Amino acid sequence: MKDRPHILYIFTDQQYAGAVGCAGNADLRTPALDRLAETGVRFEKAYCTCPLCTPSRASMITGMMPHQVGISGNNQPIGEAFRSRGIGHTLSDAGYECVYGGKWHLPEGALPEGHGFRSICGFSDRDLADRCITFIRQLHDRPFFAVASFDNPHNICEWARQTPLPWGPIPEAPVEACPNLPPNYAIPAYEPEVLRMEQAAQPRFFRGLSFTDDDWRRYRHAYYRLVEKVDAEIGRVLDALRAAGLEEETLVIFSSDHGDGLGAHRWNQKWVLYEESVRIPLILSLKGRTAAPGRADAEHLVSNGLDLFPTICDYAGVEPPEGLPGLSLRPPAEARGDTWRDCVVAETSFDPKFGGLGTRGRMVRTERYKYIVYSWGKHREQLFDLEADPGEMVNLAVEARHQGVLARHRELLAAWVEKTGDRF
């Protein structure tokens, strides 16, 4: 085992945490990700920093919250001050060979110059696995940090708009063969009114406004087929790593930038702070080193945007930039005791440039509860007991008997806002 392992970060776009077979989902098959989970640890309470592409990706690259790097919506660049201390520069300066393939979206579709990576593939799910395989098979005289960024299952956006899928078609099925509606299909009582107003303001994105029950079932079927499509590509990359004899020398991390509404609360797309949009898959595997392989960690509250950077630095033996708010996942992955956070925070903004009304929101997730607050409107606060109500159907914020829990979560958010310079 090398002291400085190779590192392979694979991530998808718009994949909800529950959209993997190893999470107990019987509506799809993900053999590649299931095999990866068998040799590693799957973090069940992992969240993105923002349920939207560019802000979430900015966090992954910088290790900071989107508001800290001045990004609130899509198609905004990382400022030069933060770009120079990004993860690519940090690892390349420490002697790692840093390569990037696939979707960038910060804001360019493909990786531009100036981020510490060498591009091995442009924005293409058709070519990305092949280019990664070619890179893996090369002789490596120093450790590498390789990023494979796939677009799917993001093609569900094109499917919903009834436009051609960029990376090829998926099989159709009669509605009887499609997944059933989710248990939390209904719009919950006392939901913030701004959510449906934002939905109505952006009909180009929120196609679910006109969906029938059967349409939602077809949507869920299409989404799961897209997940299976990208899982097959990921499997090819992992097979190449194994065939090259590098599996036990490579830390493999899998995640996604955000989730998808998937019909829960009749929501497609992202932006909203419900679980389906903001909770993401996160698997970490270093074969032979990960403790109790195959384990599902439901204890640690994780932020993939904040924790990815310090985790990679920890395994690489590299000092991360000062001031990063994240934590290394290496101690929990190796079952070593360490202090941990008592909450994780996410943020969102419905961008007026894309037709949104400018609504901003924040989420605080603690061990049992989840608090959400939006910037305006009736019933703008939500409080859910995720142990008793994992589908987020009962808003406890409107009940007097839960005011103590509500006040505590308000205080946690206020402290986070002050600590991170958030102007929410």
UniProtKB/TrEMBL annotation:
| Superkingdom assignment | Bacteria
Gene Ontology CC terms, in alphabetical order: cytoplasm
- Please provide the record's keywords in A-Z order: Hydrolase, Metal-binding
Q: What is an example of a GO molecular function annotated in this UniProt entry?
A: metal ion binding
Q: Which Pfam families match?
A: Sulfatase (PF00884)
**What InterPro entries does the annotation carry?**
Alkaline_phosphatase_core_sf, Sulfatase_CS, Sulfatase_N
Which segments constitute the Sulfatase N-terminal domain?
A: 5-318
Q: What Gene3D superfamilies is this protein classified in?
A: Alkaline Phosphatase, subunit A
Entry keyword Metal-binding: yes
**Cross-referenced PANTHER family:** IDURONATE 2-SULFATASE
The text of the family note is: Belongs to the sulfatase family.
Q: Name it.
A: Sulfatase N-terminal domain-containing protein
Q: What is the lineage of its organism?
A: Bacteria, Candidatus Handelsmaniibacteriota
